[in-house]
Amino acid sequence: MANNSIRGPQSALTDYLASQNISAYGIRQSVDARRRAAATNTSNQAANGEEDDDDDEPSATTARQARAQKRKKQADAIAKIKDSKAFKRQKMHSARDEDDLALDMYQEKFVPVPGQIDNCEECKKRFTVTAYTRQGPEGGLLCPKCSSKLADAEKAAKKTAKKKSTGGPAGGRSRRKIASQLLDGQVGVKSLLTLCVETLANNIDLADDLGHSSPQVIDRIARQLSKRRLLNPHTLNLFLQSQAEDIILYDAARLAPADYERIFQTCSKLKNLKLRNAIQFKDTTMEYLISRHIVLNSIYLHGANLISEEYWEKYLKAKGKDLKALRVYFTDKHFSDKIVQSLQKYCPSLTHLKICHNQAVTNEGIKHIARLKELEHLSLQLVNETSTEPYVHVIKNIGSQLRTFSVRVIPEVDDRLLDAIHDNCTTLAKLRITRSECMTDAGFARLFTNWKNRPLTFIDLELNRYVDAQTPRENRHMVGLCSDGFRAMMNHSGKRLKRLSVHGCRHITREAFEDVFSPNKTYPELLDMEISFCEEVTDFVLASIFRCCPKLKKLNVFGCMKVKEVRVPRGKILVGVPNAMGMVIEGTED
Amino acid sequence: MPALNGNQSKYVTLVSSDGFEFVLLREATFVSPAIKSMLDPKSQFAESKTGRCVFEEISGMVLEKVVEYFQYWYKNKEREDVPDMEIPVELCLEILTAADYLGIDNLM
Q: For chain A, which residues score pLDDT lower than 50?
């Protein structure tokens, strides 16, 4: 070493360093060695290139030193790897030699050196390594194209893993979906039938036959498909079985006239036809139905406003004899007084009649209903303004046999109808009178006091209230359903009542609610109750309701602004609480 | 497993048409009104004495899923927010028929 050094005067620093046993030469040597070691270490051509490089090295000693150092480092690293958990894990799964494995893992740890040219592990193409170059699954380097592919795959994997991991109690289901299910009355575990029907609806394209399912099951499937708007000419085939007596389609909006004709071609034993949103059910379809040997017992047509008056009459004339139930919704001006009049002649056995959203039937038409001697269920919702007399006429004639009486939106009809019902009806189970602006509390009280009728199971007296823009709360003549009527009603029907709506009857007082739902009273059958916009309802009233109605499932309280914090018992649903928590509270209290 | 009346075993055995046997908690089967009435000691059905129900119409694959549902229902019946059980698509219609047969419809 001495002959390598340059002799001459030394600086003070060199003197000082020499006294501390540090030489500049030694420093340079060790730096060079470190650099070289790093270069050979990081380059991929590890072992082979190293030997060739040796001869070019200016100093064999440094190279040897460096190599020795490097080997030591490598040995250390390998020892470390052998200790690591990852190594132990890999060892468990492979039967290879321990050292081989450790060496493999060591080489995998190579960091890419920017600027280097390499072949891609996946596609074998040559590419320039950058700082962003990724390692492939085998430990080699990947070209930008392949690495972006790998990144995408990883992202997708992460996404699905995330989805799975959130499948816990809240179950990856959105708040909206949970709220929607609550509104449907779905709390807790779904039934197996529901689960299957939902799975089926999700995969309806795979089904080519519903097999021999029971009518109830087929109905459930039909409901689910319509709810999801999946009913179309293709899925219609599932319901077309030659033995089918009922065709019930809740959303026929996508069906064309030809599809309806297909129903009549396939289902020759058809007895009950129910179509909602049957927009394309036209005169030609009616004509086809008339020409077939099908005799329907019940027709339910919703939204078929293209059928003209002429064809309604033609159909009733031809096939009305066996018709037991006729329900029509949204028929525009085509289902008129004349048709209602003809019912008596053509449909002697009619027991159900429902005319809704009808623009043609007037007071005249209602009077004709009084002559339907077999009628048991009557529902009307007419657009034309109607007066009290025709309804009274109907009740006086056929009131005693009616089991359902439902009249909606009758602003002009007054207490005389209530008195007629009180005097004539004895077998009613369902009563609906909505939006009367003339009926009074006294009238309702008279109806329900000493009424010979058995207790009702369904009462809907929605929006029978006093309407005045200036003094809405001052109800001097007690118009609408108020406290006395409410008390009398619950007294008469409470025992059997299942569904009750007093929506918007805002003059029922808090005292009346507290009386009706006092601790000594129970309403054992009540399932569903609607008291929205009854302004006097308080937390105490709600608590009383929950106590008095053991079977209650759902209670609507929209617009009851005095409801603040109410404890909802387990399994019951309270909808419409005016707070920031959301509109639904599901019971958790025991 | 024979069980004495009044001292019933906690477990029951469900047997599929192809001879697969599933042993599960008696209470877990009560979600099905059909099985519940079969096992009711008052019913005098043979099943109520032996605690063994044989379903000639239900195959092992389908019954396995039904039994899985029983367990799922039993585990989650007190809870309100429950993730849905997965139904295999290819067995969907058969399970649907079985569910209808066993009356596993309205839980309320």
A: 1-2, 44-58, 165-171
Burial class (CB in 10 A: 0-12, 13-18, 19+), A394: buried
pLDDT at residue A169, rounded to an integer: 45
Q: What value, to the nearest 5°, has the Cα angle with vertex A274 and ends A273 and A279?
A: 110
Q: Which residues are CB-neighbours of A13 under 8 A, at least 6 positions away?
A: none
Task: Collect all residues with Cβ–Cβ distance below 8 Å to A466 and sequence separation of at least 6.
Answer: A437, A472, A475, A477, A479, A480, A507
pLDDT band at B1 (very low <50, low <70, confident <90, very high): very low
Q: Do B89 and A588 touch (CB under 8 A)?
A: no
| Residues in contact with A342: Cβ distance below 8 Å, sequence separation at least 6, in sequence order | A313, A316, A317
Domain extent listing, chain B: 11-102
CA atoms within 13 A on the CB side of A283: 8
| β partners of residue A458 | A430, A499
Read off the amino acid at residue A145: K
| Fold adopted by B11-102 | Potassium Channel Kv1.1; Chain A (3.30.710)
Residue A440, phi then psi, degrees to nearest 5: -115, 165
State the Rg of chain B over Cα.
14
Closest by alpha carbon to A264, among A254, A253, A275?
A275
Residues 6+ apart with CB under 8 A from A100: none
b/e sequence A550-573, b meaning 16+ C-beta within 10 Å? eebebbbbbbbebbeebebeeebb
Other beta carbons within 10 angstroms of residue A212's beta carbon come to 9
Residues of B in contact with A193 (CB under 8 A): 96, 99-100, 104-105
Alpha carbon separation from A10 to A3, A5, A6, A20, A21 (Å, rounded): 16, 12, 10, 15, 15
Tokens of A185: 């009355």
Reported ipTM: the value is 0.91
- Residue spans of alpha helices (H) in A399-518: 415-424, 441-448, 483-493, 510-516
> Which residues are within 8 A (CB) of A157 and not within 5 positions of it... i.e. 6 or more apart?
none
- Rounded to a whole number of angstroms, the distance from the CA of A198 to the nearest CA of chain B is 9
User: Could you tell me if residue A576 is left (phi over 0), alpha (psi between -120 and 50 degrees) or otherwise beta?
Assistant: left
Q: Name which of A188, A193, A207 is nearest B80 (Cβ-Cβ).
A: A188
Q: How many CB pairs under 8 A join A and B?
A: 90
Which chain A residues are within 8 Å of B95, Cβ to Cβ?
Answer: 192, 196
What is the spatial distance between Cα A349 and Cα A338, in angstroms, rounded to a whole number? 18
